[in-house]
């Protein structure tokens, strides 16, 4: 019994040595920096509502503590269990059920019915669907490696489920989140090991599905179609190329974002010295937090934020490349794709490169559901990389946990 306990302690010590601590350190730096900037960018918003200046900061701090607990849990939880068939069925039906509940009982915010009240807790289920879709697609395609190019058996089933999920999110309507999930699914498909011929078939099918969706949207009742395609959304698409032509309406947010980014310069105006957050730039602590970072801290603030997110993306990719396990690799690639795409959409929207979609900047913007889902994914990557390094250096956990047999001395003849 004592030898077994010693073996388990040695095993735990070697597992702790196997974690990707640079990834964990950068995650902590970006999140703590995000907390500081949430406090700075949300003070006036809270005061204007008659609340305590630290209202949004306190909420985000609580969310981050929960996120940190979730990260630790998934960093020690054996990721192979996520590939279990029962777990995958739970993910499938749970994802669809949550999205249907949102459509029926959800609360609206920013012209989208994306929120669900669970007692005192208010969550955005689509953020957690991002995690479940990565796990589901990574697990299914890793199981189908023997016939990955069989279009009907190996390719089509996960794609159809992906389309269903994206369509349910579009009905909220949340175009930004649906686009992120769809593009993340495409990234997992590209990394799954399919041949180019199979991928081209899938692209053709995707164009066909897109055409069908356009027809479906056109045939929707006028009330539902007008909810999906609003004047505000059309204005975002048409005004991003030259927002100054309608700077008082559809281009208002982007113009003020330009003012914030441009006035920051190289060194910034100083922490807390932003002018645009004083009621000029809407959503300064969520969608446009990068503009406030640029205004207050200049190039160095952007370097910390974008550099940290880029490191997390790159580290997830390199961890995936080191693995022989297809499931673990696809989990890492899916995480990198999701974080990279969401960061690009947020940064591109705030800088006028692409139309605004209203998505948060990973690990930085105010938003509990987003921070929790991103932390879960980082925890999974930490777990995957730890298991891989541990097994390469020390063998399996079971072997180390077994007590070593004492060597019996040879009897002298």
Please tell me the overall pLDDT.
84
Radius of gyration from CA coordinates: 24 Å
Order of helices and strands: HHHHEEEHHHHHHHHHHH
Structural class of the helices, strands and pairings? mainly alpha
Helical fraction equals 55-70%
Our count of helices gives 15
- The figure for the number of domains is 1
The coarse silhouette is globular
What is the strand content?
under 5%
Main location: membrane
EC number: 2.4.99.28
Function: Peptidoglycan polymerase that is essential for cell division.
Keywords: Cell cycle, Cell division, Cell membrane, Cell shape, Cell wall biogenesis/degradation, Glycosyltransferase, Membrane, Peptidoglycan synthesis, Transferase, Transmembrane, Transmembrane helix
Short descriptors:
single chain, 413 residues, mainly alpha, 3-stranded antiparallel beta sheet, 15 helices, 3 strands, 3% strand
Give a written overview of the molecule.
This protein is mainly α and 413 residues long. Helix content is 69%, strand content 3%. The chain contains 15 helices and 3 strands. Helix 7 (175-191) runs antiparallel to helix 13 and helix 12 (289-321) runs antiparallel to helix 13. The longest helix has 33 residues, at 289-321. The model is unreliable at 399-407 and 409-413 (pLDDT under 50).
Topology:
Blueprint: H1 2-17, H2 21-48, H3 55-76, H4 85-105, E1 107-109, E2 112-118, E3 121-123, H5 125-143, H6 151-170, H7 175-191, H8 196-219, H9 222-228, H10 231-239, H11 252-264, H12 289-321, H13 326-351, H14 368-394, H15 397-401
Antiparallel strand pairs: 1-2, 2-3
Helix pairs in contact: 1-14, 2-3, 2-12, 3-14, 4-5, 4-6, 5-6, 5-7, 5-13, 5-14, 6-7, 7-13, 11-12, 12-13, 12-14, 13-14
């Amino acid at each position: 019994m004592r030898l077994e306990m010693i073996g388990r302690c040695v095993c735990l010590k070697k597992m702790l040595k196997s974690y990707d601590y640079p990834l964990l350190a950068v995650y902590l730096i970006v999140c703590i920096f995000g907390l500081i900037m949430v406090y700075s960018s949300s003070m006036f918003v809270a005061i204007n509502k008659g609340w305590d200046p630290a209202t949004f900061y306190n909420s985000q701090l609580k969310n981050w503590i929960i996120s940190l607990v979730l990260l630790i849990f998934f960093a020690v939880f054996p990721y192979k269990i996520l590939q279990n068939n029962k777990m995958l069925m739970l993910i499938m039906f749970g994802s669809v059920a949550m999205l249907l509940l949102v459509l029926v009982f959800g609360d609206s915010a920013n012209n989208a019915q994306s929120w669900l009240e669970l007692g005192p807790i208010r969550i955005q289920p689509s953020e957690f669907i991002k995690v479940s879709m990565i796990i589901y697609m990574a697990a299914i395609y890793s199981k189908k490696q023997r016939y990955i190019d069989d279009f009907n058996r190996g390719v089509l089933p996960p794609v159809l489920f992906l389309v269903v999920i994206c369509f349910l999110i579009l009905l909220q309507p949340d175009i930004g989140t649906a686009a992120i999930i769809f593009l993340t699914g495409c990234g997992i498909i590209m990394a799954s090991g399919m041949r180019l011929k199979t991928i081209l078939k899938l692209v053709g099918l995707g164009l066909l599905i897109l055409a069908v969706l356009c027809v479906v949207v056109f045939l929707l009742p006028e009330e539902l179609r007008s909810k999906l395609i609003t004047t505000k959304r059309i204005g975002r698409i048409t005004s991003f190329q030259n927002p100054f032509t309608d700077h008082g309406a559809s281009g208002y947010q982007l113009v003020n974002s330009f003012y914030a980014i441009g006035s920051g310069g190289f060194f910034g105006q100083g922490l807390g010295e932003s002018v645009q957050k004083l009621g000029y730039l809407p959503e300064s602590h969520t969608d446009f937090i990068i503009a406030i970072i640029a205004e207050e801290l200049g190039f160095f603030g952007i370097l910390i934020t974008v550099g940290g997110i880029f490191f997390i993306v790159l580290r997830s990719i390199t961890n995936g490349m080191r693995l022989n396990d297809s499931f673990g690799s696809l989990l890492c690639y899916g995480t990198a794709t999701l974080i990279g795409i969401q960061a690009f959409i947020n940064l591109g929207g705030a800088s006028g490169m692409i139309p605004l979609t209203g998505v948060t900047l990973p690990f930085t913007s105010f938003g509990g559901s987003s921070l929790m889902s991103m932390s879960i994914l980082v925890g999974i990557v930490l777990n995957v990389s730890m298991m891989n390094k541990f097994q390469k250096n020390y063998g399996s956990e079971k072997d180390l946990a077994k007590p070593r047999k004492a060597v019996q001395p040879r009897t002298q003849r």
